[in-house]
Amino acid sequence: MSDIKTKAQGLDPNIQPRDVMELVDKTGNIYESLVIISKRARQISSDLKWEIQRKLEEFAVSTDTIEEVQENKEQIEISKFYERLPNTAIIASNEFMQDEIHWRNVEDTEQ
């Protein structure tokens, strides 16, 4: 998971135009390429969500009243770090374009 964060920190968080033909060249079908990217984006999203929840649980304080809300600077910094990361779709599309995602077509393996 930390590997994802190191890759994502070097990426531009802004959306950039992509050449559709480059996406088609990798799989032969634009829709298949988009499915691969979207599934990887979901994987990254769930991994990051699990990781941030695990880190924020360290700072959890159980209180009986709702009025007692405490701010923790470390907790805020962790949240800000994850907010600054690029969107998971941007990370996944970059991985796809760099050939860092391995996939297989189930229909091809059955034949």
Detailed description of the structure:
- The chain is mainly alpha-helical and 111 residues long.
- The chain has one domain.
- The protein contains 6 helices and no strands.
- The protein has helices at residues 2-9, 20-27, 30-57, 73-84, 88-97, 106-110.
- α2 packs across α3, α3 packs antiparallel against α4 and α3 (30-57) crosses α5 (88-97).
- The protein is elongated, with a radius of gyration of 19 Å.
- The model has no long low-confidence stretch (mean pLDDT 82).
Strand share of the residues? under 5%
Q: Mean of residue pLDDT?
A: 82
Count up the domains: 1
User: How big is the Rg?
Assistant: 19 Å
Q: What sort of overall outline do the alpha carbons produce when their principal axes are compared?
A: elongated
Distance between the termini: 35 Å
Alpha-beta classification: mainly alpha
Number of helices: 6
How many beta-strand elements?
0
Order of helices and strands: HHHHHH
Biggest pleated-sheet summary: none
